[in-house]
Structure formats: C-alpha cells, structure tokens
Amino acid sequence: MSLIFSYVKYSEASFPMTGQYTALLLITSVIWVLLWFGYRQNKINDEIKKKEKEERINAKVKRRKKLESLYPSNKKTV
Questions:
Q1: Where exactly are the structural domains of the chain?
Q2: In 3D, which of 3, 4, 53 has the Cα closest to residue 61?
Q3: Residue range 15-71, pLDDT digits in tens
Q4: How many Cα atoms sit within 13 Å of 23 on the Cβ side?
C-alpha cells in the first residue's frame, strides 16, 4: 500500500493555507456560528410558545371548571 503513494513528495502533499482558503474557513465558521445562534434562539422561542400554550389551556380548563361549579348539571339517575 505504501508503494502506491510513494511518488508523492512531502512538500507536494502538504496543504498550503493561502489567503483564499483562510477566507473560506473564516466565512464557513461565521456561517456555522450564525446557524447555531439561530437554532438556539428558535429553541428558546419554541419553549416560550409552549409555556404560553400550556398557560392558555390551563386557564381555559379553570374557566370551564368554574362555570361547571356555578351551574351544576342535574343528572337524574333512573
């Protein structure tokens, strides 16, 4: 296996970090950081919406129970 890659010199096998590659790496890193911030903010917003939805549902249930206690249904068992 080593004979296949033996013709490649060490200097040719190294990856030169030129200005373009540095800029590409920087831009890619910035994009990943922005995506991570967006994901984090979206997760926070989802949690807030979930809490608000649960509060609305609980308030609706409390109102319904309060109305039911004010006007009990007259169920006659035969």
A1: 18-70
A2: 53
A3: 666 888 889 999 999 999 999 999 999 999 999 999 999 999 999 999 999 988 888
A4: 3
C-alpha to C-alpha distance for 77 and 68, rounded to whole angstroms: 19
Question: What would the two tokens of residue 38 be?
Answer: 């967006």
Task: At 40, list the tokens.
Answer: 């984090």
pTM of the model: 0.54
Total residue length of the chain? 78
CA–CA dist 36, 28 (Å, integer): 12
Pairwise CA distance, residues 15 & 8, whole Å:
13
